[in-house]
Design goal:
Layout lengths: L1 E6 L5 H15 L5 E6 L11 H9 L16 H4 L2 E4 L2 H8 L5 H5 L1 E3 L16 H19 L1
Parallel strand pairs: 1-2, 1-3, 3-4
Helix pairs in contact: 1-6
Bound molecules: 4-nitrophenyl phosphate (4NP).
4-nitrophenyl phosphate binds next to loops.
Length: 144
């Protein structure tokens, strides 16, 4: 399984989802390939926001070596599933799909809900991180 996690900046939410999902799927020996990307281009090449890195570290995950990249159309081919963090991401990524199959690969990470963008509120990083961890465990149960 090849999974891409997508948010707006690729420095807060999707790096958490990438690092946590990689760690948990590796622990289960699933041999999944996990990556993340942002719909925007502002943070290309940057490390995750330090608040995300800290929140992840506090519950046992190291995401500090990950680097931001921008979503591009070739990623539709490279990944089986593309999980987006909110409905704006869903619109932005689906707009780039060229076929029905590409469009169908794009799903809300939380199924029917959005992961709140924590960028402007420090207090959101810890709950977002825990929510992402919980959902990663569920997805592993569903797909493995
Ligand atoms: P992310 O959060 O989409 O979870 O990475 C954001 C990061 C940066 C910005 C917005 C959201 N920004 O406006 O730079």
């Amino acid at each position: 399984m090849k999974i891409l996690m997508v948010c707006l900046g690729n420095i807060c939410r999707s790096p958490l989802a990438e690092g946590i999902m990689r760690h948990l799927s590796d622990k289960e020996n699933l041999n999944w390939e996990i990556a993340s990307a942002g719909t925007g281009d502002w943070h290309i090449g940057k490390a995750p926001d330090r608040r995300s890195t800290l929140a992840a570290k506090q519950i046992g995950y190291d995401i500090s070596n990950q680097r931001a990249q921008q979503f591009s159309q070739d990623m539709f081919n490279r990944y089986d599933l593309i999980f987006v963090m909110d409905r704006n991401n869903l619109i932005d990524v689906q707009r780039l799909a060229r076929t029905f199959e590409e469009r169908e690969k794009v799903k809300l990470f939380l199924d029917n809900d959005e992961v709140t963008d924590p960028y402007w509120d420090d207090s959101l990083f810890e709950p977002v991180c825990k929510q992402v961890e919980e959902r990663c465990r569920e997805i592993i149960k569903q797909l493995s």
